From TrEMBL:
Pathway: Metabolic intermediate metabolism; (S)-3-hydroxy-3-methylglutaryl-CoA degradation; acetoacetate from (S)-3-hydroxy-3-methylglutaryl-CoA: step 1/1. One of its GO terms (molecular function) is metal ion binding. It comes from the Bacteria. One of its GO terms (biological process) is L-leucine catabolic process. PANTHER family: HYDROXYMETHYLGLUTARYL-COA LYASE. This is hydroxymethylglutaryl-CoA lyase. Residues 9-276 form the Pyruvate carboxyltransferase domain. Pfam families: HMGL-like. Keywords: Lyase, Metal-binding. NCBIfam families: PRK05692.1. It is an enzyme of class 4 (lyase).
Length: 302
């Protein structure tokens, strides 16, 4: 694999979905809408806006229809939704999502505990959903959980990730986001995983979603950049904890990723000050501490 940085990176902002779904308190639709609009104003062009899962399982996503309906949309911005099955897709399409996402895992144990089905069954669901999406002309993104380690099965072989990624690509996903769900990866294990995947899948079809549970996310993103990966998932203000490590941080903060990209001279199109303002807005709204080290440093700098 090449060890050259990409000239440009697309950041996929997952805070309004992956971040907020872990919050315990109710969140007003108006707050979610303002967050998404502030993120778009900061220059983010890919925003995971909601999820159409059963609200019994993820109550924070119950208002996704209202969020999509209330948005003042910006041209050129993709407002995506996570859709676990055909019913979820139909709701997302009716709400006006510009893209949908399906998800599976590398670990059978995780797949069964997280989605109540096997990996094969999750791919079967995805196949049905993607046929419907193709009919409507909607692009589909794929997520793979536990690409480095699993809370139930331990270390994951890189070849397992490559196998699942190939199946998602064959089904028609235009992009596959590789998720270190429990954040156990290091630059060495993430690079080994990416090398295995990229032996079978073009670089332009790959994104990374690297959690910060052990404080390794930025180092792992740097390693992914060295391989040439040019799409990074992150969450404003570090929203979203890690459900498998009590008290641990989960998503890497978008502000921290942007600051690193600025230092590397890699173009991304995001205004850091506006991004930090969006992060502080949602933290104030939730009454929680900001999870971005960069945002805290900028605020203290005055």
């Amino acid at each position: 694999m090449s060890r050259e940085f990409p000239d440009k990176v697309r950041i996929v902002e997952v805070g309004p979905r992956d971040g907020l779904q872990n919050e315990k308190q109710p969140i007003d639709v108006a707050v979610k809408v303002k967050l998404v609009e502030m993120l778009a104003d900061a220059g983010l062009t890919s925003i995971e806006t909601g999820s159409f899962v059963n609200p019994k399982w993820v109550p924070q996503m119950a208002g996704s229809e209202a969020v999509f309906a209330s948005l003042q949309r910006r041209p050129g911005v993709t407002y995506s939704a996570l859709t676990p099955n055909l019913k979820g897709f139909e709701r997302a399409h009716a709400a006006g999502a510009s893209e949908v996402a399906v998800f599976t895992a590398t670990s059978e144990s995780f797949a069964r505990k997280n989605t109540n089905c096997s990996i094969a069954e999750s791919l079967d669901r995805a196949k049905v959903l993607m046929a419907a999406a193709a009919e409507q002309g909607l692009p589909v993104r794929g997520y793979i959980s536990c690409v480095v380690g699993c809370p139930y099965e331990g270390e994951i072989r890189p070849e397992q990730v490559a196998e699942v990624a190939q199946q998602l690509l064959a089904l028609g996903c235009y992009e596959i986001s590789l998720g270190d769900t429990i954040g156990v990866g290091t630059p060495a294990s993430v690079t080994a995983m990416l090398d295995a995947v990229l032996a079978h899948i073009p670089l332009e079809n790959i994104a990374v979603h690297l959690h910060d549970t052990y404080g390794q996310a930025l180092a792992n993103i740097y390693a992914a950049l060295q391989v040439g990966v040019a799409v990074i998932d992150s969450s404003v203000a570090g929203l979203g904890g890690c459900p498998y490590a009590k008290g641990a941080s989960g998503n890497v903060a978008t502000e921290d990723v942007v600051y690193m990209l600025n230092g590397l001279g890699i173009h991304h199109g995001v205004d850091l000050d506006k991004l930090a303002a969006a992060g502080q807005f949602i933290c104030d709204s939730l009454g929680r501490d900001n999870g971005s080290k960069v945002a805290i440093a900028l605020a203290n700098k005055g």
